Amino acid sequence: NNQGDCQMPQVLREITQKVESRMLEQGLLTEGQHFNYWLGNQYVDGTNNIGMHSDDERGLVGPIVSLSFGSERYFDFLPRDSGGDIPVKKTRLNLESGSVVVMMGDTQKNYLHGVPSQRRITSPRINITLRMVKN
CA 39, CA 60: separation in Å to the nearest integer? Predict the structure, then answer.
């Protein structure tokens, strides 16, 4: 993340500026909104995964943008169980290198998301997540 005195790498600054510019053009951001928190994960191979969860960091505001580089991996969304007898159905995306997922509005409140194990995957994937956090 960019809090404190750490210097943001130029490539991360360029990616962030491109994402912000594109989202502004599409009406997904308003003038003056900027990502100020970055999370990076490396999935060495298909055995690395992250279970179903929602992002609920303190101070999290605005959209969350997830950028994928490297191996294709599944990205699952699961509606939160309403407590009824109707089974919930998962939505599965196949994220290729260069894929972008934007989670906005009540996504974190209404859905869980995760990256399941895929044992056939033998090469790495890097995920960079852009966030807005109020200090």
Answer: 13
82-118 residue pLDDT tens: 566 666 788 999 999 999 999 999 999 999 999 999 9
- Alpha-carbon gap, residue 55 to 6, rounded angstroms: 24
Instruction: Please tell me whether residue 4 adopts helix, strand or coil conformation.
Output: coil
Q: Within its chain, how far is the Cα of 92 from the centroid? A: 14
The pair of three-digit structure tokens given for residue 122, joined into one six-digit string: 């033998």
DSSP-derived 3-state class of residue 92: strand
Q: Which residue, among 56, 65, 43, has the nearest Cα to 115 in the 3D structure?
A: 43
As a whole number of angstroms, the distance between CA 131 and CA 35 comes to: 5
Residue 116: Cβ within 10 Å count: 15
Structure tokens at 32: 């003056």
If you count DSSP H runs as helices and E runs as strands, how many of each does the chain have, helices first? 2, 8
Q: What is the pTM of this model?
A: 0.86
Paired tokens of 119: 């044992």
Name 105's Cβ contacts closer than 8 Å, sequence gap at least 6. Answer: none
Asked if 134 contacts 35 with a C-beta cutoff of 8 angstroms, the reply is no
